[in-house]
Design brief:
- The chain starts with 19 loop residues before the first helix and ends with a helix.
- The protein is of the alpha/beta class and about 400 residues long.
- The protein contains 13 helices and 13 strands.
- The longest helix is centred in the C-terminal third of the chain and has 24 residues.
- Glutamine binds next to loops.
Length: about 400
């Protein structure tokens, strides 16, 4: 977030000096707080996946992998897309492995956008979107989702699309609101994308993290969409391996080629021995994916009831790692940023102020909202709740 002008920083990145995740995780470490800020689990992923990475290192797979990703990972991504979402991709030409979903998004945006192009997206938005759109010299056109339901309003999306709109950047399940777009909503978005001949970049990193029987759908499943959509995901959330940064994108070969052209000059390649390990994860039986979501649903419910008991107004998510609260019952000035900065000192808990997920012109929309992550051990959640209750 902006802390005044940074002297050597390009004008394109003014205001994007350091991410909130770095700031809040550093604060958590410095104060020994429970980190319900940055979305990473405080527990490990499946043993088979961890062992596969160790085997890959031991068997000498420690040099540059191929530019598009190791063949067994590309094959496993293709199998996974077909198994779960009924989408078929050619592993040789329609799948690109990246340094996390972050690089998939950066590669796609930098590879596709011209200066002055517009990108329509849902706000609040994950923080790298705006920065990458700015790096590409393009313009963000946000459509704001509002609590308590964060319902998507098709008319607002229609109004955000102009003759300069080139890309529609979707995120479902949605960080930070936890909204999971249903097929009907996706159809409305798809109709607009087709009518205005837009490219869709669909960030689906939380594809397996949906609750209460709700199922994720990719917009690429809809008629006329596969050919204009880049689906982005990564292994971080699905296998509790956020530090491995194995991500990917899938789409028609020309779109993948555009993203690859930019990606090859960002990292070229990354995460060599972790790529075959994520391939093992993607091939785990269905039960793994079901249990992952069921476990997180229990954690979500535990954190939500604790936050309610602590006095917050709580907005329940249908997916992702995150619960948003309105802090005003506890902090009448409604300054979420100040609240998050003081929280570690006051009670040893870290959260993320949602204001950082809004365009500067609409900071008032997110000023009083704070995001807490529930991808943590139940002991961590319970201890955080005990500490938060001491605030009121
Ligand atoms: N998109 C969203 C919506 C996210 O929450 C995150 C955070 N993990 C990312 C992309 C980045 O994913 P990765 O860590 O795989 O780069
Ligand atoms: N996606 C995670 C979150 O929203 C963390 C991302 C990051 O640290 N850049 O918390």
């Amino acid at each position: 977030m902006a802390n005044g002008a940074a002297p050597f920083l390009t004008s394109k990145l003014q205001g994007f000096g350091s991410t909130i995740f770095a700031e809040m995780t550093a604060l958590a470490t410095a104060t020994g707080s429970i980190n319900l800020g940055q979305g990473f689990p405080d527990y490990d992923g499946p043993q088979e996946v961890l062992e596969a990475a160790i085997d890959a290192i031991r068997s000498g797979r420690n040099q540059y992998p191929p530019g598009s990703g190791v063949p067994e990972l590309r094959a496993a991504i293709a199998e996974h897309q077909e198994r779960f979402w009924g989408l078929r991709y050619d592993p040789d030409t329609e799948i690109l492995v990246t340094a996390g979903a972050t690089e998939a998004l950066a590669g796609a945006l930098l590879g596709i956008l011209e200066t002055g192009d517009e990108v329509a997206l849902l706000e609040p938005m994950y923080d790298s979107y705006q920065a990458c759109i700015a790096l590409a010299g393009a313009i963000t056109r946000p459509v704001t989702l509002r609590p308590p339901t964060y319902a998507f309003d098709p008319d607002e999306l229609r109004a955000a699309i102009t003759p300069r709109t080139r890309v529609l950047l979707l995120n479902t399940p949605h960080n930070p609101t936890g909204v999971v777009l249903d097929l009907e909503q996706l159809r409305v978005i798809a109709d607009l994308a087709i009518r205005h001949d837009l490219i869709v970049i669909s960030d689906e990193v939380y594809e397996h993290l949906t609750y209460d029987g709700i199922r994720h759908h990719s917009i690429a499943e809809l008629p006329g969409m596969r050919e204009r959509t880049l689906v982005v995901s990564s292994g971080g959330k699905t296998f509790n391996t956020t530090g491995w940064k194995v991500g990917w994108l899938c789409g028609p070969s020309e779109l993948v080629a555009a993203a690859r052209a930019a990606k090859q000059f960002l990292t070229y390649v990354s995460s060599g021995p972790f790529q075959p390990a994520i391939a093992v994860g993607l091939r785990l039986p269905d039960a793994y994916f079901t249990e992952l979501a069921a476990d997180l649903q229990t954690k979500r419910d535990r954190l939500m009831s604790g936050l309610r008991e602590a006095g917050f107004e709580v907005f329940g998510p249908a997916g992702t790692y995150f619960v948003t609260v309105d802090i005003r019952p506890l902090a009448p000035d409604g300054d979420g940023y100040a609240f998050c900065r003081s929280l570690p000192e006051r009670c040893g808990v870290v959260g993320i102020p949602n204001v950082v997920f809004y365009d500067r012109a609409r900071h008032h929309e997110g000023r009083h909202l704070v995001r807490f992550a529930f991808c943590k051990r139940l002991e961590s959640i319970d201890e955080a709740v005990t500490r938060l209750k001491a605030l009121s």
